[in-house]
Structure formats: C-alpha cells, structure tokens
Amino acid sequence: MIMDFGGRALDMGRCHVMGILNVTPDSFSDGGRFNRPDIALMHAREMVAQGAAFVDVGGESTRPGAAPVSLQVELDRVCPVVELIARELDVVVSVDTSTPEVMIETAKLGAGLINDVRALGRDGAVEAAVASGLPVCLMHMQGQPTDMQDRPQYQSVMREVSAFLMDRVRVVEAAGLPAEKILLDPGFGFGKTLEHNLQLLAVLDRLKVLGYPLFVGASRKSMLGQITGRDVNERLPAGLAVATIAALKGASILRVHDVWETVDAVKVVSAMEGVGQ
Ligand SMILES: Nc1nc2[nH]c(SCC(=O)O)nc2c(=O)[nH]1
C-alpha cells in the first residue's frame, strides 16, 4: 500500500526507519544537542545518509513527567528545522506534535507526516490535521506525560489500545481524514508497565489486522532498561531486538535514535521475507 507523505510516496508494505531529531532541551537521551537549525540539519543529513526514510522533529518532550511547552516555544523550535530539512534533504519530515497550529505551520513548510502521541486529542487538532492534507500517526497514550506512568492499568491492554485507536480512527475519518492517510501506534511506554509493553509487542500483528500501517517507537526507552539493566545510551542491542520483532510482525515505520544499525536489522528481515520458499 503506497502512502503519499507530502509528495513523497512510500510503500507501507515495507519497513522504513525514522530517525529521531529532538529539538528540545530536555529530551531524555539527547536533550539539547540539536537545538540550532544548522546542527539539526547536520544530524538529519547524517541520518538520511544512514538510510532514514523519515526524520521526526519534536519540539515538546513527551517523556514521563515532561512539562508542556508554550505554542510560541514549540513553533520557534520546530518550524526553522522543518523548513531547513524539507528544503535541503530528500526525506519525509515528520513532526512530533499535538498542537494544531504547529501542524498547520509545519505542513506549509514542507512537513510530510503528522506524528501525534495524543492521537489528535487536543482542541482543534483533528481539524488542523484534516486541513493540512498530511498523513497522521495516531498513537495510544493512557493519561498524560505528567502522570501516565503513575499507575497504568488495563483489563486487556491490546483490546483497550485497539479500541482506543479504532475510536480515534472513526472520529478522524468522520472529520474528513481519508483511511489511506492514517497510521496506528500502540505507544510503547506511554501509560504502560513493562508487562503491558511486552504484551503489546507480543501481539503487535493483531494491531495490523485493523488495516492501517503500524508505527513503532521503543528506541532507548525504559522498557529496554527494565529488561536489560542497561542505561539509556547502552540500549541499542535491545532496541534492535524490538526493531526486528516489530519488522517481523509487519511494522511499516520504526522510530529510532540509531539509524544505520536499525536499517541493517530491517534488511535482514526483508532479505529473509524476500527469498522464495
Ligand atoms: N508515534 C510515536 N511517537 C513518539 N514520540 C516519542 S517521544 C518519547 C521517546 O522517544 O521516548 N515516542 C513515540 C512513539 O513511541 N511513537
């Protein structure tokens, strides 16, 4: 299934790597390194050279406990970087935002995907996403970053995550967003215990049957630290394991910090899947 990302067509039947470009001072693993547009462009260029099909630009940290940022701060962080990358590089610029005005502005500046961890939950976000004409990733989160990890609870995490995402799909499709512009994401680490995250990973293919491309982000997250005991900058092997599992289970986009390493892991999965039986 070919999806059009602001003029760049990509086959969602394949697994693509998205490089993370946090332009926030407090992101948990690379906070503050890429705040200047020229430095951000250099990092984006490097990730594209390593095989990233997407670069995800986020101006508001959504780590547990993160404080919201003002509209102007988010615009000031994100817009110059989106404009520069969209102009200079042949890559889909994804914008990690829940803010309607940021969606509209960055779409004008050449963004190709809206990546909203709040599934267009903020006032005006559905309308802004529809008006932007861009594809949207709808992600599940229980609670808000300020409290989501306090006491995550589910009767059945996959059933509840699926129900939430399908409800959001109904809302955004009714508002005019075509089905072929929707991606779904279970939201690893967003209001989930380690057990919930593992249960979602184990049955990720069940999310696929909803009929939308799957987006997965687990890179360097605390779930990997809980399993391995590794610090945030030593979680690459565990991250590659999740990337491989997700690719095997049909994920279309993997959001990661470590691009070439993940590209290679995906190449192994694709090579195996491509060989005649
Ligand atoms: N769609 C999507 N967007 C994201 N943005 C972040 S920011 C927090 C972090 O990188 O730990 N995570 C995700 C994710 O899992 N899915």
Automatic annotation (TrEMBL):
Keywords: Folate biosynthesis, Magnesium, Metal-binding, Transferase
InterPro entries on file: DHP_synth-like (IPR045031), DHP_synth_dom (IPR006390), Dihydropteroate_synth-like_sf (IPR011005), Pterin-binding_dom (IPR000489)
Protein name (Swiss-Prot/TrEMBL): Dihydropteroate synthase
Enzyme Commission number(s) of this protein: 2.5.1.15
GO biological process: folic acid biosynthetic process; tetrahydrofolate biosynthetic process
Recorded superkingdom: Bacteria
Occurrences of domain Pterin-binding (ranges): 15-267
Cofactor(s) this protein requires: Mg(2+)
Signal sequence residues: none
NCBIfam families with a match to the protein in the record: DHPS (TIGR01496)
Catalytic activity: (7,8-dihydropterin-6-yl)methyl diphosphate + 4-aminobenzoate = 7,8-dihydropteroate + diphosphate
A GO-annotated cellular component: cytosol
GO MF entries: dihydropteroate synthase activity; metal ion binding
Function: Catalyzes the condensation of para-aminobenzoate (pABA) with 6-hydroxymethyl-7,8-dihydropterin diphosphate (DHPt-PP) to form 7,8-dihydropteroate (H2Pte), the immediate precursor of folate derivatives.
Family: Belongs to the DHPS family.
Pathway(s) where this gene product acts: Cofactor biosynthesis; tetrahydrofolate biosynthesis; 7,8-dihydrofolate from 2-amino-4-hydroxy-6-hydroxymethyl-7,8-dihydropteridine diphosphate and 4-aminobenzoate: step 1/2
